[in-house]
Structures are given as structure tokens and as C-alpha cells.
Amino acid sequence: MVLRLDTRSGDFEAAFREFLGGKREASADVGETVSAILEDVRSRGDEAVIEYTRRFDRLELTPDTLRVSAAEIDEAVSKIDRDLYDALAVAADRIGAFHGRQLPEGFCYTDNAGVRLGQRWTPVSAAGLYVPGGTASYPSSVLMNAIPARVAGVGRVVMVVPSPDGVINPLVLLAARMAGVDEVYRIGGAQAVGALAYGTQTIAPVDKIVGPGNAWVAAAKRQVFGTVGIDMIAGPSEILIVADRLNNPDWIAIDLLSQAEHDEAAQSILITDDAAFAAEVEKALEARLGLLTRGDMARRSWERHGAIILVEDLLRDAPSLVDRVAPEHLELAVAEPDALLERVHHAGAIFLGRYTPEAIGDYIAGPNHVLPTSRTARFSSGLGVLDFMKRTTIVGCSADALKCIAAPAARLAHAEGLQAHGLSIETRLDDSAR
Amino acid sequence: MVLRLDTRSGDFEAAFREFLGGKREASADVGETVSAILEDVRSRGDEAVIEYTRRFDRLELTPDTLRVSAAEIDEAVSKIDRDLYDALAVAADRIGAFHGRQLPEGFCYTDNAGVRLGQRWTPVSAAGLYVPGGTASYPSSVLMNAIPARVAGVGRVVMVVPSPDGVINPLVLLAARMAGVDEVYRIGGAQAVGALAYGTQTIAPVDKIVGPGNAWVAAAKRQVFGTVGIDMIAGPSEILIVADRLNNPDWIAIDLLSQAEHDEAAQSILITDDAAFAAEVEKALEARLGLLTRGDMARRSWERHGAIILVEDLLRDAPSLVDRVAPEHLELAVAEPDALLERVHHAGAIFLGRYTPEAIGDYIAGPNHVLPTSRTARFSSGLGVLDFMKRTTIVGCSADALKCIAAPAARLAHAEGLQAHGLSIETRLDDSAR
After folding, report:
1. Could you read off the pLDDT of B312-347 as tens digits, one per residue?
2. CB atoms A390 and B372 under 8 Å
3. Which domains, ranges and CATH numbers included, belong to chain A?
4. For B397-421, what is each residue's pLDDT tens digit?
5. Which residues of this UniProt protein bind NAD(+) (chains A, B) (predicted)?
6. Partners of B159 in the beta sheet?
7. Which end of chain A is more exposed for a tag (fewer CB within 10 A), N or C?
8. How far apart are CA A229 and CA B381, in angstroms?
9. Residue of B nearest to A383 (CA)
10. Which among B269, B294, B367 is positioned nearest to B136, based on CA atoms?
């Protein structure tokens, strides 16, 4: 039985708080193991990476075969079904077009005091993309992580993907090629993160590491943070659907299940103003569950973490609940979603109307599918071009401009007890440049 | 003796690498202590905060006196010297004006397929600012942390500042008032970070915590990250000055010392193309050192971590060295700094020409003085308005638009083994909305 909440019931606030506070994932404590692997990769480089790959991926590599060659990529790509090739190409184009709009502009101006002021955006020099192996080796994630880096102007984009027993998903290699990845290495786990962060004899270090991974990868990213930048550490996926009774209940049911099928820690929530519609959705969901290949997983997710929340008035009641959940994905399945859109503040990505299933955003709409989970949309954003760039501020004073603003600056410096700070300003007023 | 390097010497590369890799700060391992404090604040709220404040700050508080009242702020502010008041007001104005230019714009468009696409920026709901107590209680930092939050449109800005033995710097309270801080609490340490992250009976939780602090505060910020957003964990300050022989050596010397006086882990580096000029700077620096109130500290920083790097040609050789250091502060003390500016990629803030001492940026120029340290300018930025905002992407399909892009999306979903993802798209093509 899925959790049901009703805003009109007296204990709603307490029950909703408990629901919000619920933990969906036990975090494995692998910090020490990871720390030892990272240290080993840092000190021994390729040799350590090759040893861990032998142990964890049952694969024998040499420094020469760490990298997936262009010929191997050609070979893998040549066998890909034409329709799939084209589908990935459409996705890459659309993702590139959307992310192109995210390119920021700097500014530069001279103010009344004659001070030249500005802000400049520049890309990081090199980015590393972690791609999981096995069943979670998603070509769509390669596009979503690599294209923003390329659009940002990152000089060198490197991908690591574990190849257990020598197997790599050919679609992942195709996606890497389409997204313009420069180097692909067949390594994974904490050892691959270490290689990207510290560099080895064969792999030059990068400045930023992005991409999803298991507990070892997540722990490794946390530990190398500071040496390199990292993206967020993603938690299990979520969807919140705000739907009125005029939706096809089967559509809403399958949307809820499209999150639930990811992972049993995933979470699907429906907010509606109609109890009969909610019951119809549940019925449709049951019917669908039996037919899904990942139905058992989806059922566990739905029954453990799902919820149906009944409200009196969608427009009045839903936005504040949405903001408290701050969902990764938000569907506004109503005829006029803009009124709700304006009232909602915290969500990773929003899908408008009855014909925008969340999954369209996972693949092809254009925006990124790497989004903040676990209520972090309150303060963080999906992956984008800005994650591969940084700002530098610029100040330029002429002798006259400095005179204009020197006195208050020096006064504050001395008030803070920082004498040399004050003197560095004052001495330029009294003396000559040479 | 300060380290001297010369790009023309055979061992330069090895020596420069060693210099770059040098650690300047031992990080205290306070993780477990902090973890216990956070857990205690999380479960006991005000009571725990009050107990830790009694123990660490020798101050007896009640839930009613946790907050600094408006009357207390009035009283403290009323005694502040008029010149200092005015200086802080000028700083607040200029910082506000610069940060106003950082406000981002979203976008919204409909593409060829008829898909509505957009990106919206919204502020976080509540931000918490940590301000250290004692000698590092800087009013300028209050402005630099609180003003970007205000400009971003953050609804509630909260400040915590420890008050050991009951003492708070009145200038810090004035800065909080000028910057529009809504609530000030006289608490500090890990307990204050815990109160901001989890909330207590008296203090509502925030969504993002920013501001500098000691090892306990830094560890607490790391640990609450995920529950709330945090800014970077700042390391010791740095300056790199690129200067030709046409500078007044005393000006360059005092600029180097203005970083060195912060902290013995601070780092000051001079890159010049003239050995005689370098010697003059060193001589001027020695002369200044003896006169500074913080001269002992500055000397330790300079002798342990400072460096003079001689190059043959500033324009040709300096930029790549600068990028490898990726300094927090970069002064380009030459007559025509723009040529260097164009060639440099990684620096937190850049100061142009002979009349722009770094200290002018610490107080009054306008850009933020919270900047990336320890080579992290390769991938991160100074504090700004964007740190208090987040992006939400928006997708809207009509029935026709969905038809246009459905096929490749569903194909990719099925190729990734995510059947419900595919079905959520396909079912909308076959069936009717209700």
C-alpha cells in the first residue's frame, strides 16, 4: 500500500514532515577503502590503476591499452543500428542547442569614480567524465555530461568507463564520439577517479570531474574535491506530479513508474485534488506494474517511497508542498500549467502540461537530465555549461580613480587591524609610480 | 631567505612543481568532535546550542537572548565613529552596485519542433552567514557575504557571530544592518552551523550557509553539506604579482606584505623579468617588515611560502605560470595590463596596472573578496549573486510537438532498458488525454 496523505486531515503536517524526513538510501561506508586506493593511484600511477582494474574488472591492461583507441571506437560504432545512431544524433543536436543558450556573458564598465570593473567567464582547461559500467552505462548520460563541457569551451574532455571482463557498451562509445570526448579510458571505480584527479604516466590530470557512480565513485569524488572540482553527488531519482482529474490516469501512472523503475530508492509522488482520480491512477499503476520488465523494482520503490497527496485546491495548495519537497523532476499535468509554474520556486526541472512526460527530458528535449535530488533543488541546479566555467573579477584603477576611493578603503583596512592593506593604498597616493 | 626561481635555469620545472605542490596548512582532524556537536544540536536544539556557547564562549544565554536585538544593534552602532560609518556605507554601496550586474537572466523560447524550452533563475529561500569572532571578525566580510544574498533576492538572511565573553565587534553589527541582514544570533562554532542547517526552536533553518571560519566551522560546513548548500571551504590567502622594473619597488613590496600579514600560511609570489628590480623589492620589503604591527607574522609567511620567479619575457612567460598557480589574487603591475589579461585564464580576481593594489578589492572596489584559494581558481569562482540562486529548466510539449520528438526519445529509452520511460512517451501518441 502506498502512503496517502490529505491536507485536510488534522495530522497532515506531522505526517508530511515525517515523509519529507524519510531516508531512502543507506550510504555504504567505503571512505577508508577509497582513501587507500586514491593514495595508491596518486603514488604509483598507471601501475596501481592496472592492478585495481585486474582485481575489480577482471581485465588485464597495460599502459598502452588503458585508452580505448579510435579504431576500437570505429569498430564498435560501425555495428550500431542506424535508427539508434540517428536517435542519438537527434539527442546530441537538441542538447547542444539548449546548452548553447546557457553560455554566460561577462561584463565590463567604468563607474563614476573612474574605476574599471568587470567580470569574465572562462572554461576549465580539462574535464573528466565518469560513466558507470554494466546496466547503468547510459549513452544519454554521456551526452548530458560531455556536451555542456564542450559548449563551455573546455579544452580537453576525458571519459572513463569501466569495462568489466572487457565489455563496453558501444552506444556509450558512440555518444562519447558525438559529444566530442577527446580521450576514453577503460577504467572505473575509485582508481579511475584518482587517475583523473592526480594524473598518471598515461592520463593527464583534469580540473573537474563529473558524472554518476556507485558508492565507491561517490566517496572518491568527495575525497578528491579541492584538488579538482566535482559536480553534485546524486542521490536516488524523484518525480512529483501535480495532476488534476482531467488527465488520462494511465499516463500519470506510467510517469510515476518511469521514476520507480530506476531504483528501489527512487521516489514518485502524486499531488491531486480528486480522490477518485487518485484511485484511478493507482489502479492503472497496478495494471502497468505486472507488465513491466523492471516491475518488481518499480513496485518496491512505489510501495516504500511513493505517496499520493490529496489537496483541496491545486493552485492554492500544491505550490508550497512542491517547494518543501523541492523535487528533482516536477510535472505540472494541468491544462494551464503557467499559473502553477509561477508559484513554484524549488525544482530541478519542470515539465509543463499533459503531453510532457518527464522521460522526454531524460533523452531529447534539450535541458540536462543531471538534476539535484533529495531536496537539494532548494539550493542547487542541474548540470549545465556554467559548471564547466568560472568567473574572474577585474578591477583597474588609474591614479585619479584610486584617489577617489582610497580614503574609505584605507580607513576600513586600519579598522580591521590590517596595516599593510591600508599602506598599500595610501603609499600610492603619496609617492610616484617610479 | 625567500625562494627564488628562474625559468632559465635547468631545474626550473622540477622546482616550480615542488613549489606548486607545497602544503601550507595542516588541517586539524576535528571531524568526530564536530559530528557529535552537530548531532546534539540536531536532536536537542536551543538547549544544546546554549550549552556549547557556555562552554566555548563563556557566555550564558537563554532562548530569548540568542538573538541580538534591534535595540542592541542600535546601541552598538550609535557609538561608531562617523568616518568609519561613512566608509562602510561607501563600501556597501559599491559592492551592491557591482553585484547588481551579476543578476542572471533566464530564457524561454519555442524551437522548430514546437517544444517550449526555458531556464529560470530563482533565489534560495534563506541564507545563513557565518562570521568569525575575535580578531578575524571583519565587517568587510559581512558585506561581501550578505550583499550578494540580498541582491539575489534571498527572502531571509541570517547571521551568526560568536560573542566570546559577550563581546561582538560593533562594526560587524553595523555591516549586518547595512547589508540588510534580517536576524543576528550571538553563537559560533560547529553549534552555530548546526543551528543554521537543522534549525532549533528559536532559529529557523536556512538553505545555504556561507562565510569563513576556523577548522571546526569548516568541518561542520562539510558535514552539513547536502542538508544545506555551502560555499567553498577557503584556504589561506594568496597573491601573485606580475611586475616589470618600471614599478615603485616599495609599492610591490607592501602589496606582497598585505597578503603575508593575514596569516603565516598566506602566500605572496612575485614574477618579474628584472633581477635588479626583484632585489629592490626584497630590500623594500625588509624595510617595511620592521615597521608593521603584524610584521612577525608577515615575515614568517614570506620566508616560508613566498617566492620570486624571474622570467625572460613577462608577456611570453608569465601567463602560463600564472595559470598553473591559479592565484586567488593576481596583480598585473605593468603599464599595459590588457595584453597579459587576455593571456591569463585562471585567477580569482585580477587587479590591473600600477595603481590597483589588491587591498582596494578587499574593501571597496565592488567585486567580492571571497575568492577561490589553493589553485581552485582553475575550476571555481569567487562568491557572487549566482551562489544564492539556482536554475530550473522548463520543457513544455503540445501533442504535436511531442509527436515530433517522441520516436528517438522512446528508442533511446528502450535501448537503455528503461521500458516505463519509453512507454510514458509512446502511450501519449496512441491514446487520448482523457
Report:
1. 999 999 999 999 999 999 999 999 999 999 999 999
2. yes
3. 3-24+235-365 (3.40.50.1980), 31-102+120-230 (3.40.50.1980), 397-430 (no CATH)
4. 999 999 999 999 999 999 999 999 9
5. 130, 191, 214
6. B129, B184
7. N
8. 11
9. B391
10. B294
